[in-house]
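stage 2 :: seqdesign
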């Protein structure tokens, strides 16, 4: 097994906003050279639609040509398009599966095979509590997140013998723009405050900050993580241990 590179190159998807921006900031502070990918422009961001899976092998090759070997991949990019079952269209279903499942899998394949050839790598997929518990209007999102956790396990099995550790981080309520649904911030309304914050369903009684998700990712991709692979780290303030 090889050693971790001195200043590892880390690809972070969804790095323009929210959790991805926090992960990029944290990994930079930890000493990585971060290459941020996003469909939305931002400072230093490489334009990429993660759903365009046919281009991922060439994309990782071009990042390596410019920055050196990729040692870390964090799949964060995501969309949520809530729709009741009756309104669920093939287009919104396919788009969520493409962004939340197909994209991360093929980026992990492109980067993971290269990491395996060099004998060291860390991959983290940001999933959600929705991978294990579900909500109405959320069929495609829930199916994609559950699928990504299954894929995380298989990637861990296939890449583990070559020194590549693969895990998922499953957040609960995180304070990002994704918590604004149809123009309404769900964390500011009575649904969250009465039921979760004050109603006993959320033991830590507050939403998570993006930096708190980044802190879990920071450990999983570090040289300090030598034995966690195929795992699901839940960062939900206790949400899913209540009923
Ligand atoms: N916010 C939460 O409460 C929460 C909870 C659990 C899981 N998550 C997951 O965390 C991840 C990040 O979400 P967030 O809350 O930071 O949302 P966000 O909207 O703030 O950030 C998502 C980022 O992904 C980018 N993106 C969207 N589609 C893309 C595509 N096709 N290609 C490349 N980039 C794309 C967006 O432009 C944006 O910068 C998502 O996978 C989401 O499902 C969020």
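stage 2 :: out
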């Amino acid at each position: 097994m090889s050693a971790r590179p001195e200043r590892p190159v880390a690809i972070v998807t969804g790095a323009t906003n929210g959790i991805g921006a926090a992960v990029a900031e944290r990994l930079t502070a930890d000493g990585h050279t971060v290459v941020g990918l996003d469909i939305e422009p931002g400072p230093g961001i490489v334009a990429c639609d993660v759903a365009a899976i046919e281009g991922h092998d060439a994309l990782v090759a071009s990042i390596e040509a410019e920055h050196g070997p990729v040692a870390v991949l964090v799949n964060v990019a995501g969309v949520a398009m809530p729709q009741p079952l009756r309104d669920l269209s093939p287009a919104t279903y396919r788009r969520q599966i493409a962004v939340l499942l197909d994209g991360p899998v093929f980026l992990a394949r492109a980067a993971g095979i290269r990491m395996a050839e060099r004998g060291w790598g860390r991959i983290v997929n940001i999933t959600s509590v929705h991978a294990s518990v579900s909500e109405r209007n959320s069929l495609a999102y829930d199916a994609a997140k559950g699928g990504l956790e299954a894929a995380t396990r298989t990637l861990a099995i296939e890449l583990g013998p070559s020194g590549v550790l693969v895990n998922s981080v499953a957040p609960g309520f995180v304070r990002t723009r994704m918590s604004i649904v149809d123009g309404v911030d769900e964390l500011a309304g009575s649904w969250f405050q009465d039921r979760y914050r004050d109603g006993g369903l959320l033991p830590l009684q507050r939403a998570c900050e993006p930096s708190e998700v980044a802190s879990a990712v920071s450990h999983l991709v570090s040289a300090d993580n030598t034995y966690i692979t195929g795992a699901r780290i839940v960062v939900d303030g206790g949400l899913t241990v209540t009923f």
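stage 3 :: structure notes
- The helical segments are 18-29, 56-67, 90-118, 139-159, 190-197, 210-220.
- The pocket of nicotinamide-adenine-dinucleotide is lined by residues 13-14, 16-20, 38-40, 48-51, 76-79, 99, 126, 128, 171, 173-174, 176-179 (CB under 6 Å).
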